[in-house]
Structures are given as C-alpha cells and as structure tokens.
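Hi there, hope your week has been kind to you so far. Thanks so much in advance, here it is.
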Amino acid sequence: MNNTSNKTRELVKTALMAAIIFVATYAIRIPNPATGGYSHLGDCMIFLGVILLGRKNGSIAAGIGGALSDFLAGAPLWILPTLIIKFIMGYIMGSIIHLNPTSKKLQMIGSISGGLFQIIAYTIVKIVLIGFEPAILSIPNIFLQTGFGITIFMLMSVALTKTLVKKIN
C-alpha cells in the first residue's frame, strides 16, 4: 500500500476507535449525584484503543471520544479537561507498553498508571470547577469507574490475545 492509503487506514481506525470510546462513555452512564457527572465504561475502551492503535492514535481516539461524550451530554465545561485528561491517560499507558504492547504485565502497569493520572487530574479540575468538597466526595466514584475499566480491559485483552482481532493493525 502507498503512504496515502496507510494514512487513510490509520485515520479511519482512529476515528472508529474514538466512536467506540464515545459510545462506551455516553451510552452506558451511571449518574453521580454528588458531582452531577456520571461513571461509564469508556475507560476500558480507551485502554483497548491504546493497545490496538498505539500510543499516538490510541491517545487521540481517547481524547476525542471522551470529549465528544461531554459535548453531547451537555457538559461544555468538561469538554476541554476531558480531551486533555483522556489523551494524557492514554499516552501514559502507551508510553509504558510501547516496547511490548502484548505484555499483560505492562498493560496492567500502564492502565493503572494512566488511571491514577486520571483520578488525580479530574480531582484537581473538579476542585477548581465545582469546589473542594464535591471533588473529594467524587474520588471513590472515579476510583470505582477506573478500576472497573481496568478490570474489563484486562479481561478483554486476554480474550483478544486468543483471537485474530488484534491483527487489525
């Protein structure tokens, strides 16, 4: 394939992963009355996107998919923070798994590291945007969301290792 075909294929896969992340974030929401926000399954798709697309494109899909969800959920204040936080979360994971994306140990370390960044970053942003007390009260919720996302991702990763789905690159 020529360079234009490769770039088009890369763009399409990144856009498709952003759409999958959006759907997992937007369609499956568990409201959090403490913050007015919600928990979702988008994080597991972000981690999956990073192993399927790599650090750069997986992170781009993460930021776009998450931000699009905030946009359509009517949360314009959160679009930019989500875009940045989800991108960096994916990039952290991608940087850790970079040399061996199929290593389950590195996937676990990478997803936990990216997830911890997300928890800290969202807490800081929430302190600024909604106040100290609601931000602190939301920590258990984002911890559960992130932990659940990591768990589902690891289960999916094991299943995908046994199939040809990972051959889409």
About this structure: The longest strand covers residues 30-32. The domain at 3-168 is CATH 1.10.1760.20 (Arp2/3 complex 21 kDa subunit ARPC3). The chain has one domain: 3-168.
